[in-house]
Amino acid sequence: MTKWQKSSAYMEIVSFVEQLSKSVEGKRTSSKYPVSPHVQGICQLLDQAESWISEFPPDTSASSRFGNRAFRQWVTRLEEQASRLLCELLPEKWHSAADELTPYLTMAFGNATRIDYGSGHELSFAMWLLCLCKIGFLEPADSAAMVLVVFAQYLRLCQQLQRTYKLEPAGSHGVWGLDDYQFLPFYFGSAQFIGTPTTPAAGIDARLVAEQGGEYMYLQAIGFIMDVKNGPFFEHSRQLYDISGVARWEKVNQGLGKMYKAEVLGKFPVVQHLVFGTLLAISPLCG
After folding, report:
1. What angle, 0 to 180 degrees and rounded to 10, lies between the N-to-C axes of helices 217-228 and 152-165?
2. Core-most of 139, 161, 189, 282, by most CB within 10 Å?
3. pLDDT by residue (tens digit) across 151-183?
4. What is the DSSP letter of 169?
5. What pTM did the predictor assign?
6. What is the CA radius of gyration of the chain?
7. Could you give the CA distance from residue 76 to residue 123 in angstroms, rounded to a whole number?
8. Neighbours of 233 (CB within 10 A)
9. Burial of 238 by CB count in 10 Å (0-12 exposed, 13-18 middle, 19+ buried)?
């Protein structure tokens, strides 16, 4: 962990998620921001991945609360098609990067053996986007669209996978965790509210969630929790309930940024499966 936390990869991913958060401050999903053809290409890739869900319906021969094994077929399809998807997405001059990009993409939606999903898989998707930036496919001008278009679509796809295949939460802290599956929607989503009259207390208001979930990632993620969990919100989502008592979104955003480093990037069970190469190196940042 010491080697990881002093590596260039660690420093770059911290800087990257902070940059993405900053890029959406005060922005609704419907706000005006550049959406490049390359961003649109990623959305088409995610569309293809989503279309496979209908090809692999849940296996009803074995009932269980979590972990429908049909998910393994979906992941197998992703692994088989990942190289093709990347070659279709990337201009030929960047095809040489496909070998390093592929693992981040295939690990971004959950683990086929355990049939689970968590913040480590979400981190893999963020690292995939970072690698696309490092090779020049995505640019700083794409930052807001990476969050409000690409990441938002990725979130919806992951939620559909969670619902369809009843994915086990990977590394969940239960009631004391921020969320069973995701982290970044709350970090990015809190930035969207900075400078708006909406208070953190309103972030868990069911009516606001229903009305504005399409405009704010934070509300969309809260809405998903409200849909899939039963009982009072303060009982099943204590951390998010406590966050609603913070006075300003700036403080929420700062706190979530620190929490991401401690509870996601700083936990071995979350980062143990990460891979490194020339785009994201485990070597120290300096020397």
Report:
1. 10
2. 189
3. 999 999 999 999 999 999 986 555 457 888 999
4. E
5. 0.95
6. 18
7. 20
8. 16
9. middle
